[in-house]
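ok trying again, last paste got cut off:
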Amino acid sequence: MSEHSKYVDFENRLQKVYKRLHKIASKKGVSCYRIYDLDLPDFPFMIDLYGDKLYVAEYQRNHQLDEQSHAEWIDKSKEIIAKIIGIPLKSIFFKKRKSIKERNDQYVKSEESEVVEYVVEEGNLKFYLNLTTYLDTGLFLDHRPTRAIVKELAAGKKVLNLFAYTGSFSVFAAAGGATEVTTIDLSNTYIQWAKRNMATNGFTNVEKYIYHQEDVLQFLKFLPFEYYDIIILDPPTFSNSKRMEDVLDTQRDHASMINQCLDLLTKNGQLFFSTNYTKFKLNVEEIKTHAIKDITARTTDFDFERKLDRKCYLIEKGN
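nice, full thing came through this time. structure:
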């Protein structure tokens, strides 16, 4: 296939998917959604729309192009993307990702020095994005349906958000009327980001909204038993941060983490557990409850159909 034909195929594919997704998003009132994710092997991009900005990530591959040819390919691809989406080139923020399989780069800084922050809305709530400093922007789009479910359930509840990243689940829980929201993450950067997101939406009560910069694996043992009504557990697939006492391996450690969370839940409490590990297998035999529902399909929205390896479970304490 000629280079020209490849570009034509990419343009046609992007135009087709964008037309369909834009129509659905408009009906749903969604302004932040994924448009394209490795649809064509010759164009290994992830393309996310955040309002009037585009975040485009090139997945690592053995493309066998020299530096100049690769730069020309990037420029041509950007021109096609800008044309189809109807957005100026200056509104496209481009990154390179190390892996196409796992979401493990949220704490990794990129080499760019300029900080570009941008406020977007989801469900009438506001969130700060950073489109330049990190490989992830600050809002994981795949969790949009799960955030909405947490908001629906949160009224009058005590909510614990573990591995909270920038606190989007905390914001939705607070917006749903939670009486208490506890946000825990290892990174002070993301704890401060979470506080900023909460404050931007008017959630500033220091008695109701609690934050801990802690290693979740170690800190779970210090949290009160049978206290929380809702827990969100969305760990990275793997982490060996120098600030952690132990290495986190979600496949190996998930049953232990889930059981610890079950101990923290009230009698009718609910745990939302999710992972992006592509080879994940739930170790049902080691989990101290049979009340486990796979809600992956329920929490997969229109822009992630057939694109997402994430698993999501609703786990209840049971009797």
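cool. The two ends are 61 Å apart (CA to CA). The chain is about 30% helix and 25% strand.
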